[in-house]
Amino acid sequence: MVYEEDNTEAVEMKHIISILLENEAGALSRVAGLFSARAYNIESLTVAPTDDPSLSRMTLVTTGTDDIVEQVCKQLNKLIDVVKLVNLTDDVHVERELILIKVKAVNEQRDEVKRIVDIFHGHVIDMTESTYTIEVTGDSEKIDALLKALERFVMLEVVRSGQLGMGRGDRGIV
Amino acid sequence: MELTGAEVIIECLKAEGIDYVFGYPGGAVLHIYDAFYKQEDVQHILVRHEQGATHAADGYARATGKPGVVLVTSGPGATNAVTGIATAYMDSIPMIVITGQVPKHLIGNDAFQEVDSVGITRPIVKHNFLINDVNDIADTFKKAFFVATTGRPGPVVIDIPKDITAEKVAFEYPAEIEMRSYNPTIKGHNGQIRRAVDLIKKAERPMIYTGGGVILGNGSEQLRTFTRSLGYPITQTLMGLGAFPASDPLSLGMLGMHGTYEANMGMHHCDVLIAIGARFDDRVTGALDKFCPDAKIIHIDVDPASISKNVKVDVPIVGEVAPVLDAINAQLARAGVGAVAEQTNKAALEKWWTLIQEWRAQDCLKYDRESEIIKPQFVVEELHKVTNGDAFITSDVGQHQMFAAQYYGFDKPRRWINSGGLGTMGFGLPAAMGVQLAHPDETVACITGESSIQMCIQELSTCKQYGLPLKIINLNNGYMGMVRQWQEFFYEKRYAMSYFDALPDFVALAESYGHVGIKVEKTADVRPALEEAFKQKDRLVFLDFITDREENVYPMIPTGAGLNEMILV
Q1: Cα end-to-end distance, chain A, whole Å
Q2: What is the pTM of this model?
Q3: Quick check: is B50 catalytic?
Q4: Residue in A with minimal Cα distance to B302
């Protein structure tokens, strides 16, 4: 006999979870340890103190079915260091990521790269005779598009901040 | 007046009303031991291995509901405690484990007896602390006890560098502590409780399924009122036994892998499942896709993460068992559901009970009571008789644990003490020590096997030192019984490493520790030997029962099967 519940297809989706946690030694490893112990995915994780230095704010991107992500949130909430948690994906929100790319740029490449950077509203923040270091912010899709646009150049180094997120309007977690 | 950090620790324990600390000294905790020496309020029980300390504190906590306290040194002291901490964690037992740490300036230096205790224990504690400042000791202890004993309880580790325990500080224990990041829910949501009551009233084939949460949450009285006012059948998990009396006709016994036929069939066919303080563990549910196919499920649990973790539930109620059941009982009483006769579902319920009685008539726990070779089940049944069913029973892990759970018949909460979640062999003897210290006038027996008992046998020495008159019921079949049973069923009797080629003479072993040993080899001698043992009120008696070598635990649900697919005898 089949379950009565409506078996919504178990689709894996990306979720952005915003967490306020005590700014204490070990708090980060509790979060990271939870993900490895329970075999959950972490796609990206950023953390830094907030305006209140006793609190850190973490933005964590994970993928999973709705059931799994619900468990992830419950287990995170159970950690004693976690003060508050919001799954931003449940509601309208903004997300941003910062990327730094050191790309090889010589001769005519210099103009081409500069043009791409302008199109993506980025900046060249450092340069040598043969390289540009580019800074771009945006949502993940924009960052991915930028990487695609620069594919045919030689990217010497790429560093992404991981996503930051915040609920729109009055929605907040403080 | 200023106290040393070590003295502050003692004062904190006193303020929390702690009477026993189970521990083992070592370099990093010597200041604390010196402070122990200078006072008499908190008694220190010296075990023979740190694992024993954790299990003893755990047994103490399970038998009393108060937190158990452990004190061990850094490095190997802490790592030896790990098994016991994990055991307590899996069964949600409130425990405070104080681990010594190397002095602050040596942390991270690979110093002698240094391990990252906070890192090692992180996944097996409710929370842990490393104290960096002598001024933080009192606050940290207050927080630790608060976290360990509230919400879903669990072990908390406090790691304390040695230098801090020598520094001086003015002592003040906080009366209250508030943690912005920790506020467990106590009362259930009213709307959800109303929905639950509606479902409960209309149930035609109800089943109450309860777990260790009822015992941990001291909800036994409320559960009795709830179950009896409705006249609904109830089954309890391994961890829940005793919350509702096994001798009550409403009780169908334990459910799950080695549960009764009537309990598991009742689960499978019920239309409303009322889960209380239970966590749908894999040993309980069997195959999830076959679990309770027709049931609307109500789940009461203090831990929101336990709800809809394995099985989707229809009415989740987050809260402590006792206040939630109080609220439900009050609503049922108001609605006039005071007796079965008043229920709208009377006819359906009668039909349901008729069906349950048919399952019950299978007598799934029958075994050869005439056997001349000692049957382990028989020993447990006789133990029940000799102790009037009123002893505190601890167990280790394996067949004997299941026989104890199936055949002892617990009528009161906190009397059945075993490692259900982690399944830790070696738990029984040290746990029994904690129980006996908590209840010096009660009868405490440890049902064990020749394999499990050897994992913490050294604690017989502790029992001698503190005069703990435990009764050890060793069901000795020469095999790791449960491993052998699985090898018989699933590996064509290839008994890889499950047989002991050499066993100690347990009688001589007990005697060498200064205890009484009795070997029992015939069924006819079981009762007299038990009576003789329990007459010896102030001695530890080790009863070595030579039992049927290849007896199996029945009934059994094989892995991957549903609750309605049991193997019966």
Answers
A1: 46
A2: 0.95
A3: yes
A4: A78
